[in-house]
Structures are given as structure tokens and as C-alpha cells.
Amino acid sequence: MFLSSTHLFLNGLVFALVKDGVLRLTDYEGTVLSLDLEGRVLVYAKGNTTYRRTMQNHYLEIKYIDGRRKVRVLGSESGLKIGEGAFEFARTCINGIKDEQIGKVLERIARRGPGFLQEDADKFVKVYGGEVPIVPPDQYFPVYLQATVGCYWNRCTFCNLYRGKKYSVKDFDEFKEHLSQVKKFFGEGISARRGVFLGDANSIIINQDLLRKDLELVHDELRLPVYSFVDSITTQKVKTYEDLLEISRLGVRRIYLGLETGSVRVLELLDKPIDLDGTRDLIINAKKTGISVGIITLAGAGGKEYYKEHVEKTAEFISGLPLDRNDIIYISPLYIYQGLPYSGISQKVGMLTGAEQEQQYLQLKSLTNEKFRSLHGYALDAPVVIYDLIESIY
Ligand code: SF4
Question: Is any ligand 1 atom within 6 A of the Cβ of residue 154?
Fold first, then answer.
């Protein structure tokens, strides 16, 4: 009952607020700690630094230095200290609060410590049969559900997200069991989750009958909006407008497409055989059904040789789409991994420096906005923002 209601306590100089399944503690110095109702640390902010815990118990440290956002993943020893600090702060804050409705939750949190967080991360890996790599940056706290595992295509020359994973589709019984395990894992903490992310890389392409059953189950069990990556290689070939309309009615709110670039020649370097016309149709159809889109592009793709072409063709493609304020355009700095085919390609086309990538991000952003305005006669409402893979770890 209390999970959806708001409780505010004043405990000395501390504010304790329970809202939408999150316990938020704030002291007079501005330290803020958010925990789910099982006691998982979500966000801990102290001074000018914010720490976000991933489900695998890593901490992202986010700071602003000279007005610039700096993000890094902390090592396990530093992470342990953050966990200790967070629980010490929690105990100080909640000590003395008596409340019939949330007393049990506070008692539970008072007993927690970094050991609990590590055990929780170990359980997480067991439930998912391995790590869950990423979700888009606006999806920090979803319930991650795997209708599929891995990536159907899994060949893009730059991508290492699912390399070691064999692609498979869960049948309905497997998915049902998986959902039940995930619910059990989250416990009361599930009330802090704002949506369902249907993983891994391209679940929407599965057989429509199976997808319908999966989504109906998700709706019955969780009643949360659904989000998913789709690959724009296959999806437009296997999903009709009617299919998209059906999944929109079943709760799919946004799909995220890895477009990477609007240049056919750069797509060839990436070994990503996207049909741009088909991708445009997919986006138009999705928008017509009420599904919004997240379009992911790469800053640095095509290196120095294709710098100009990549910026122009990408801005041209995106600006031609019927985007609105519900959509989002991500520009993700390209990470080049040794041992992947793109590493060799980048030697040939000339790798961009960090500063050049940043410059390309700014150019992509301004040219997309400029072209959109000149084509449509009004400003692009969809935000164009950075998507750093580091910040997207689930
Ligand atoms: S970029 Fe997307 S489609 Fe390509 S291999 Fe990675 S997950 Fe699969």
C-alpha cells in the first residue's frame, strides 16, 4: 500500500522521503541517498560528486570539473567504500524514525551493508546468466527482461556488446520463468522501477505471436511501460505497421535504433547493412502508432576520411524524420576496441582524437537542428544529447 504513496519525515536535520518505491534521504549539507525498498543503493550524491550504482555493483562517479561532466567507473575497492559510506549515512538518517507503515523497510535498510550489495550483484548475474551490458541513458532504473539473449546480427565491426553471447530466443515458458525469477530477485525493490527494458539487442524482431504473449505477460505482471533496442537491419523487414500498432497497444513506448550514421559508405565500414529508406519507414510507422524513437549515432565513425560525409549524411537523414519532443537523438562517442575489425579499419581511415570527436558531436548536433528547422519550418523538439556507453551500464 505504502509503495505508491508519499511519506515525508523530519528527523532532526534530515529529510526522509518515501515516494514511488524510493527512499530518499537528504541532510542539511545536501548529501542525498536514494535506495530501493530492499536497500539497494541507487544514487548517492555528496558534495560535487554523484555515484550511481549499477546492478552489478559497480559505481559510476559523475563530477563536474570546470563545467565539464567527467564520468568514470570506480574500481571495486573504491566502490566498497562508497557502499560503506552510503549505508553509514542511511543509518544516521533513519535512526529514530518510527512509522507503522514503513518501519519494516527502515529496519531492513538499517541492517544492510556493502556485503548485501555484493551478494545482490552475484544473484543478479545468476538470474540473467551473465552480465547485462547496457541500456540507453534515459533508462537508468528499468526492470530488464530478456525475451532474447544477445544480438541477432552480432557482426558490426565496432561493437563488442554481445560478442561472446550466442543469440537465442526464449520460448514463452522460458520467458515466463525468467520474469518470475526477475520479480523474485527485485523483491520490494521492484516498486522503484519505472519501466521494463526488453533485451537484449533486438527483441522486437521475434515472431509476433510470441512477442504478443510476452508483452501481455509483462503487462499483467508489472504494468509498466516497455522500451527496447531494435536493430534497423532486420526490424523493418519483419514487422508491419499492424505489428507495431499491436505492440504499441501492448505497452511499448519507445524503441532505440542504432543508426550510427546516415552515410552508406560509413555503414559499409561498420558492416551494418542498414537500408536507410527502410529505416525511415520503420521510424515513420512507429511514430504513427504512438511509439517514440531513440536514434543512436556515433561520433567518430568513419574517422578522418569520412568526417564530413558522416556529419552531413547523418544530419540529413535525421532531419528528414518526423521527430517530436517524445523522441531523442543520441550521439555516442565511438570506442575502438583492440581485436575488433574496426580497430584495423580505423588505422586506415584515421582515428579521431577525443577533441575531434567532441567537435564532431557539436557539428552533428548543430547541423541536425539547422537542417530540421529549414526543412520543417520549426525547431527540432527532440533533444540531441551525448550517449556515453560508460554511463549506460545497467
Ligand atoms: S551494433 Fe547493434 S546490431 Fe550491431 S552487433 Fe552491436 S548490438 Fe548487434
Answer: yes
Tell me if residue 111 falls in helix, strand or coil. helix
Number of structural domains (the chain) is 2
CATH number of the domain at 236, please.
3.20.20.70
Q: Both 261 and 353 in a single domain?
A: yes
Is residue 206 domain-shared with residue 78, that is, in the same domain? no
Q: Residue 272 CA: which ligand 1 atom is closest? A: 4
Atom of ligand 1 nearest to the CA of 233: 3
- The span from the CA of 13 to the CA of 236, in Å, is 56
Would the pLDDT of 135 be above 80? yes
Q: Does 127 map to a domain?
A: no
Domain that holds residue 19: 2-120
Each residue of 293-337: pLDDT tens digit?
999 999 999 999 999 999 999 999 999 999 999 999 999 999 999
| Ligand 1 atom at minimum distance from 231 CA | 3
Mean predicted confidence (pLDDT) in 226-250: 96
Could you tell which of 134, 135, 162 is best to mutate to test the pocket of ligand 1, judged by most ligand atoms within 8 Å of the CB?
162
Q: Which residue owns the Cα nearest ligand 1 atom 6? A: 159
What is the residue with the minimal CA distance to atom 4 of ligand 1? 156
Confidence of residue 194 (pLDDT cuts 50, 70, 90): very high
The residue among 211, 181, 186, 184 whose CA lies nearest residue 198 is 211
Q: At what angle do helices 114-128 and 76-94 cross, to 10 degrees?
A: 120
Any atom of ligand 1 within 6 Å of the Cβ of 201: yes
Domain boundary among 85, 120, 155: 120
Give the Å distance between the CA of 53 and the centre of ligand 1: 25
The model carries a pTM of 0.93
**Listed residues 120, 144, 160: the one ending a domain:** 120
Tell me what the mean pLDDT of segment 140-164 comes to: 94
Per-residue CA distances from 103 to 37, 43, 100, 189, 257 (Å): 11, 22, 5, 16, 44
Percent of the chain with pLDDT strictly greater than 90: 81
Regarding whether 185 and 61 lie in a shared domain, the answer is no
Contacting residues for 384 by C-beta, under 8 A, at least 6 apart: 329, 331, 364, 365, 368, 369
| Type of residue found at 383 | P
Query: Is the beta carbon of 258 within 6 A of some atom in ligand 1?
Result: yes
Is the same domain home to 137 and 234? yes
